[in-house]
Amino acid sequence: MTTSTAIRGLWCATLTPLSNDGGVDHARFAAHVHDLFAQGVDGVALFGTTGEGQSFSLEERRGGLDALLAAGIPPARIIVATGCAALPETVVLSRHAVASGCATCLVLPPFFWKGVSDDGLFAWYARVIEGVADPRLRMVLYHIPPVSAVALSVDLVARLAAAFPAIVVGIKDSEGNWAHTAALLERVPQLAVMVGHEPHVPRLLRAGGTGTICGVANIYPALVRALMSPDVTQEDEARLATFIEIAFRQPFLAGFKSMVADRTRDPGWLAVRPPLVPLSEPARRALRTALADAGLPPLAASQER
Fold first, then answer.
1. To pair with 82 at 20 to 30 A between CA atoms, which of 58, 214, 227, 232?
2. Domain assignments of the chain as residue spans, ordered by start
3. Is the pTM of this model over 0.85?
4. Mean pLDDT by 10 residues, the chain (305 residues)
5. What is the pairing mode between strands 192-195 and 138-143?
6. Residue 10's closest CA among 222, 188, 199?
7. In degrees rounded to 5, what are phi and psi of residue 132?
8. Which fold has domain 9-232?
């Protein structure tokens, strides 16, 4: 697999809606994904950081994937985040995804132990691949040290790509450190290099990367799509930067869910899994006002400020 056939384009790291009992709301989940596709998103990544993946059990994560497939979401348009702190659980989720027709798994490193060596991380990823034991598996490594506190060095990525060339096909770099992304593009050009930090999208594509797996697409996919155009303008980049600055004035997951609740006029979207908490009503009003004052597209017609 080369970058000519690897995942590319605009993929949404999708939010995960909750039902009244605190579980995954399968109906809202499917409706959200269908809506993203209608807005031009190429695919979705389930149960990653934006999807609160580490807050859900194995059963909930497998059930969420099963529900989307049952709702007619094409498996080729789904990437499943399967990384867990425990190696056997990562194997279980990855094996289930591949058996369900979703061959591409986004895999965090084990994130509880800090200061681990490249040798230890290589052994962990090798054990995951050997445990899944399915040649259909396609692994996208997930580098997000601001959250995981466990970095994937360029040396490690190159070593994994060389050892498992048919399996390790890409990396999502969500560090927001362009030097690291540039080093990946130089060292492992055979991989699909994607970013989670949306402001880097134009630069990435010019340098040979394949696209983005990002959270902003839950709210404004058109803003991200504009960054992928050969005709991207400074105004396009400024609008995206303005949105990100506003979105991160409060806890971003609660803020993103608040914005989806506004867009859909569905307060059920406000729920987050503890220990996260929803935005207060004053915080929601302040967020809504900031978006409007910045001239960003309204989330819903006649939305009360």
1. 227
2. 9-232, 248-305
3. yes
4. 64 98 97 97 98 98 98 97 98 98 98 97 98 98 97 98 98 98 98 97 97 98 96 96 96 97 97 98 97 89 41
5. unpaired
6. 222
7. -65, -40
8. TIM Barrel (3.20.20)
